[in-house]
Amino acid sequence: MRKLKGKILPIRYYGDKSLRKATEPVSELTEEIKQLIADLTRTMYEKDGVGLSAPQVGSSLKIFVVDPFWFQEGKKKNPFVFINPKYLELKGEISAEEGCLSFPGIYAKVNRAQKIVIEALNENWEKIKYEAEDLFSRVLQHEYDHLEGILFVDRVSKLKRIVFLKKLQELEKTTDENGVNIG
Ligand code: NI
């Protein structure tokens, strides 16, 4: 695949409608889709993320990119692209702290399946299947949730949410209609 230069896109913050919208499957690998993948990838690295989904940049398509290990691997970049992902299996349960580029400064422990089997199409429109555990599995589930309009704070119990409720309300209040944090 020809390497496209990605653009850095603005991240939509909590309070933006795009984060709650249902996404549509991608039907064809057009130039536009290739550009979106390049933009998502560049933006993820630029913002020091380990994953980024299309709704977080205002697109309602079933696409996300992840690179859970680039920090551990001395910032060596090895992005994985997921188009129209589907779970084949979810197993076990494990709790760990998560954050999200759409929630600056907010972190919380979230329960996730320990192991998943997932299939999708990659950036070359080839069918891929991964068995993922622990961190890789967690990042994939976090991004998959974004495609369903589910945010990580939804998976935190009401009781635990009290800890960061004020921050959350502040973030929502200061996000304008274009999803830009003005606070
Ligand atoms: Ni996120």
Descriptive account of the structure:
This protein has 183 residues and is of the alpha+beta class. It has a single domain (17-172), classed as Peptide Deformylase. The chain is built from four helices and seven strands. It has helices spanning 31-46, 134-147, 158-161, 165-173; strands at 51-53, 63-66, 80-91, 94-98, 108-112, 115-121, 127-133. A five-stranded antiparallel sheet has the order 1-2-3-6-7, sandwiched between helices. Strands 4-5 form a two-stranded antiparallel sheet. Strand 6 (115-121) and strand 7 (127-133) form a beta hairpin. The longest helix is centred in the N-terminal third of the chain and has 16 residues, at 31-46. It starts with 30 loop residues before the first helix and ends in a 10-residue tail after the last helix.
Task: Provide keyphrases for this structure.
183 residues, alpha+beta, Peptide Deformylase, 5-stranded antiparallel β-sheet, two-stranded antiparallel sheet, 4 helices, binds nickel (II) ion
How many separate domains? 1
- Continuous helix count: 4
Q: Distance between termini?
A: 40 Å
User: What is the C-alpha radius of gyration, as a whole number of Å?
Assistant: 16 Å
Strand arrangement, major sheet? 1-2-3-6-7
Task: Give every kind of bound small molecule, once each.
Answer: nickel (II) ion
| Total beta strands | 7
**Class per helix and strand makeup:** alpha+beta
Q: Class in CATH?
A: Alpha Beta
Largest sheet: 5 strands, antiparallel
User: By CATH's scheme, which homologous superfamily applies?
Assistant: Peptide deformylase
| CATH architecture group name | Alpha-Beta Complex
